[in-house]
């Protein structure tokens, strides 16, 4: 909504300072934790022979 019910234009919204830095400070740690969880879960699956990736040799 950019105008009031009487037709007046509302002021510009406040700009968040350091938006890119804050976004980076949130995204990077969660990506890192996600990769650690995925890596450990893949190792667990391989250890219990639930999923073992096969080496596909495409030397045909």
UniProtKB/TrEMBL annotation:
UniProt entry tagged with the keyword Transferase: no
A GO cellular-component term linked to this record: uniplex complex
Main location: mitochondrion
Segments traversing the membrane: 20-38
Subcellular location: Mitochondrion inner membrane
Keywords: Calcium, Calcium transport, Ion transport, Membrane, Mitochondrion, Mitochondrion inner membrane, Transit peptide, Transmembrane, Transmembrane helix, Transport
Record membrane topology: Single-pass membrane protein
GO BP annotation list: calcium import into the mitochondrion; mitochondrial calcium ion homeostasis
InterPro entries hit by this protein: MCU_reg
Residues spanning the signal sequence: none
Protein task: Essential regulatory subunit of the mitochondrial calcium uniporter complex (uniplex), a complex that mediates calcium uptake into mitochondria.
Family from the record: Belongs to the SMDT1/EMRE family.
PANTHER family on file: ESSENTIAL MCU REGULATOR, MITOCHONDRIAL
UniProt subunit comment: Component of the uniplex complex. Interacts (via the transmembrane region) with MCU (via the first transmembrane region); the interaction is direct.
Identification of the protein by name: Essential MCU regulator, mitochondrial
Organism, as annotated: Oryzias latipes
